[in-house]
Structures are given as C-alpha cells and as structure tokens.
Design goal:
CATH topology of the largest domain in chain B: Nucleotidyltransferase, domain 5
Number of helices of chain A: 4
CATH topology of chain A: Rossmann fold
Number of domains of chain A: 1
Order of helices and strands of chain B: EEEHEHEHEEEHHHHEHEHH
Number of strands of chain A: 7
Oligomer: heterodimer
Distance between the termini of chain A: 13 Å
Distance between the termini of chain B: 32 Å
Low-confidence stretches of chain B: 36-42, 344-350
CATH architecture of chain A: 3-Layer(aba) Sandwich
Strand content of chain B: 15-25%
Number of helices of chain B: 10
Largest sheet of chain B: 5 strands, mixed
Number of domains of chain B: 2
Mean pLDDT of chain A: 91
Low-confidence stretches of chain A: none
Helix content of chain A: 25-40%
Strand order of the largest sheet of chain A: 1-7-6-2-5-4-3
CATH class of the largest domain in chain B: Alpha Beta
Radius of gyration of chain A: 14 Å
Shape of chain B: globular
Strand content of chain A: 25-35%
Strand order of the largest sheet of chain B: 3-2-1-4-5
CATH class of chain A: Alpha Beta
Structural class of chain A: alpha/beta
Amino acid sequence: MKIVELSLADEAATLRLARQLAEAARPGDVLALEGDLGSGKTTLARAFIRALTTPEEEVPSPTFTLVQTYDCDIGMIWHFDLYRLNRPDDALELDIEEAFAEGVSLIEWPERLGAWLPAEALRVSLAAGAGAMERRARLAGGERWSKRLSEMFGG
Amino acid sequence: MLVLGIETSCDETAAAVVRDDRTILADVVLSQLDEHRPFGGVVPEIAARAHLDHLDRLVAEALRRSAVDLAALDAVAATAGPGLIGGIMVGVTTAKAIAAVAGKPFVAVNHLEGHALSARLSHGLEFPYLLLLVSGGHCQLLTVEGVGRYRRLGATIDDAAGEAFDKVAKMLDLGYPGGPAVQRAAAAGDTGRFALPRPMKGRPGCDFSFSGLKNAVRLLVAELGTLSDQDKADVAAAFQLAVAESVADRSGRAMGEFARDYAGPAHLVVAGGVAANTLLRQTLAAKAADCGFTLVAPPLALCTDNAAMIAWAGLERFRLGQSDGLDFAARPRWPLDPGAKRLRGAGVKA
C-alpha cells in the first residue's frame, strides 16, 4: 500500500491534483472519493472529467441522478454519487460491474458500496484544512496504483 | 381527448389520466398509497424492479378511478427521459405495450417538459411565460414559447437547489427529505444571527450556484461545534433566506430579459419540489410584483413528481399531431433546450 498525503492550499490545487490523476488514469480504474459534505469531491471529479473530455464539459453533481457517464478516449467515465443509496446491492442496478470492468469510475460516497468496492481502488480522501478554502488529500493505493503514485508524487 | 400518463424516471412510480378540458381524472402515486408508506427502504429510481413490481397495478388503479377503459384513451404517454435508464425503460416499455395492445399512439415525454407545461394544466396559462424549475435534480430558468419550444436563460453551475436543502439538512442533522425539514427548523430561527453569502446575487446572467453556500454552512457548523436546537434553527433560517434571495435575484434578471423579448401580460411559473418552500414563494411573489409579473404556482401535487403532468404534456403534444414510434429509445440525457450555451467553468444540471 502506497500512501501520499498532500495539502491543497486552494481550489486551484485541487484542480491540479484532479488533472494529474486524469493523466494517469486507464481503463478499469476505480477512484473512491471520500470526504464529508463540502470537502471538494465533486470539484475534483468535475476537473478530472474535464481533463479527459473537454474543458467546457458540463458536469452536474450526480447526487440526484446517482450516475452520469461521459465518453472519452480511454473509454467511458462513470461518475457515481451514492449518497442516496440505502443498500450496497442497489448499486448493482447502476451497472457498477460494467463500469468497473471497462470504464474509469469516480465514486463519491464509496462507503455506501460496502463489499462491492474493488480492493484495488485508489482511495482519495479529502478533508477540510485550516483555512476556508484549504483541503487535505490522502491518496492510498495498492499494487495497481503504487507505481503511478510514485511517478506522480515521488517517494 | 383522454391520455394515460406514466412516470418512472424519479423516486416515484405514478400513473394518471387527464382530459383536454384540463380535468385530472386520476393521479395515482405509489408512495401515497397507504400500504406503501414507507416504501420498504428502496429508492425506486435505483431499483427498476420496484417500478416494475407496481406499475401494472398503478395503471389499473388510475383507469379504475377514471372509469375509463383502454379503448376510450386517445394516446398513451410516458416519461422517456431524462433520468436513470432502468426506471425510464420500465415506464416506456409498459406504455408502448399498452399502446400496441390497445391500438393507440404512443407519446414519449420529456420529464422536464411535464414540469414546464404543468401550469397550463392547473391554470390554463397561455404561452409565452417564464419558468423557474427548482427541484432536487434541477435548477433552471427557461422561457416557454410553446410546446417543444424552450429557451434556457440560466441554470445552476454546480448543485441544484433541492440538493442544497438536503445537504444542509444533513449537516444540521434534521432528517430527510431536507426541504421540509429545513423549513420546519427555520420557523423557530432568527435570520439575522448568521450572515451567509447570496450566491451569484447581482452578477450578470441568470445562472445559479449553491456549492459555495453549502461550503459556507459547513464552515459555520464547524465553527459552532455542538449545535443546540436554537443554533440549528438559526442556521436553517439564514440558509433558507440566502437561497430565497439568490433565487429571487436570478429570477428578477430573467424577468428583465423576458420583458425585453415579449410584450403583453407576463407570468413567472415556479415548478418543482422546492416550489413547496413558503419563504421562496413569498420572496418570488414580491420580486415578481416588482418586475410587473404575476407569480403562478401550480398546486404541490403537480410540483413534485407525478404522472398527471406527464399525461398532460403527452396530450399537448398529441393534439398538435405529434406522437412517437414504438422504436423510440429512452434518453438518459434530454435537455429542454439542446441549443443552450454550455457554461464555462461549471457543471450544469440540464
């Protein structure tokens, strides 16, 4: 398990992190975006999706629709928000198996998935920092991610 | 003219029958049937199976209450998007099957068009009018020029208004759904104790934003630490006022644009679940009066998700000679104004 801890001074720093992750992404990747309400999960996901589609891509918060999909060069991006999910099994209705097998998945509120969350997912935890706009990020990935994390952040 | 409508794109499973003289003969909503309150902990929007399990019975019940049989119908309408594909397909497939068996035309309805035309069902409103659609999934301002003719003036660049209510209710531990919970708590609150931002207020254009306001509430809640009931009430009151003033400001700008484009009587229609908020209605009514507009608010049963508005939108399309083939594919994404300019630097709920 490779763990990287970052301090993100402002929203621009969150956007830079999102673009770095997008550049490294490949089909079958699952990014679990953890953090409380207002910690910047959707902001990070939006920048990630725009980096792989177009800078003007409309990326609504998927809280209400549960999932939004986007086509890009490396396949389909699946942006999930499982906030309203009551039971992990309900996620099967959202075609998570297809998403995890072939697409690139961004999952907000991944803890709602329970055992369905793939073990090789990159866990991206966001938390409030000292200032109003500051955030702390913790990236934790196993074998699937450790080399890429080292290339991105050293260590 | 009689049209059966089916709605399965959202949390509700619903069926309704309406007539062209604006009479709702039946409007049956699953969560309002006694034996399904509460609905067993499944969000039907997620579980297409849940829609499937109940839709036949709801359609039969709507026809029974209307005292109408399939032969008497002129068309069968169903929500064909936007929304989750599983739920939509249950409604669309059911409607197509009924249409095929009864030998009636099928009409595919955009869920948002259902909201957009609901004031014509409830109030017989003439085109054109300005529509504010505020719900859990949508927040936009549109001119409604005619059936199928919409122009988006503005939309949220991040969260929808109803989503902001839900998330603030969560932060304050007020329960779900957030809209009624925040309104109840705010009733005992002091709007003057906390100052929250008024997102986008005074900015050009008619777009909305609620993510920054949500963050401001988060910081305020963190600063307060342990919240007393009075703290919660005061935060809820400040938040609700901020949303109402922001929405009224954006709507005011849209009314200005509308008045420049169209002469004659001007109406602002507010639809969607958030239209249930009393303070929002009051603030909008005052703003509308300032702008020389009349505020029109369809009854709540037509503002939240329902099948009567779908049947009505289907009827409006059908009496203009429009219907769809049985090969019509459900559309998970289906903006009312596909030509709307994409908003830079933001996500938009279309």
